[in-house]
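Run log, item B.
One chain of 103 residues. Sequence copied directly from the ordering sheet:
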Amino acid sequence: MPAVQQQASGNGAVASVVSKEVFVKLAKDIGCFACHSIEKKLLGPAWKDVAVIYRQDPEAENKIMNKVAKGGSGVWGTIAMPGYPNLEEEKRRILVRYILALE
């Protein structure tokens, strides 16, 4: 099964769906769970909170892709998130699409 599957949404648009298993393995391998969790804030924001804030932003995927690549601080607090510039774009996209799909 591919990591990212295309699925038609209710409004006819095509959305990418990432399985939880693929997301969790990738996030563990990279070390994301050291600072983040799906449900609650740790050092970084809970991913569900990220999804809520960015849900209506048409540029959300690109913004978060850049944040993962370059890192940054100030949006969710003072602790800086390190950038992951060497993480392949496809892997960043898997992480971001899963996070944005959280409810």
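Observations after the first pass:
- The chain is about 40% helix and 10% strand.
- Residues 4-101 form a domain with the Cytochrome Bc1 Complex; Chain D, domain 2 fold (CATH 1.10.760.10).
Flagged for discussion on Thursday.
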